[in-house]
Amino acid sequence: MPVGAVAVLMINMTARTSFRNGAAAAIGAATADALYAVAAVIGGGAIASTLAPVADPLRWAASVILIAMAVRIAMQAMRHRPGATEEESGNESELRPFRAYLTFLGLTALNPWPAIYFVALVLGRQAQGNQTPWQASAYVISIVMASASWQLLLAGGGAVLGRFLTSQRGRFITAILSSLLIAGLAISVAVTG
Known about the structure:
Layout: H1 5-16, H2 19-43, H3 45-51, H4 55-79, H5 86-89, H6 97-110, H7 112-127, H8 133-164, H9 168-191
């Protein structure tokens, strides 16, 4: 499983908030993967050809959103940097699990790579012969379970990271580094066709 910009964003968000929010974000990403897997099993090759004309706009939209999130993380880090006054720090609105779920559902759904990945998996599987509905269902459930366990592992990593870096300086450094990494990955998404 690759660690892309959305995964880095999830790890950072979990480190800054809580495992509860991270788990909700992980389930949001896994839900998008599930929707893509179901669509790939039902539509197969038709989805690949349908996505081809909109792959570039989806890629650019995902890049813009990721860059905006990277800038937001960096700005929040600057407000909460070591030595910042109470006035500069401001009040960060508390992230709720449902909002984390919806955010990561949307980010993952905007990313065209999961759709292409699932279509390729399904087409490869179909090349071995026709699947019964039970086999297709088992295949989708396996994909969803693998995705959910991977996303939850990433969120757990973020929670552990957050416990080790509880100081104001540690959070500042990781927020800046993760925003730079997210921005770099977003640029990579934009320029990789």
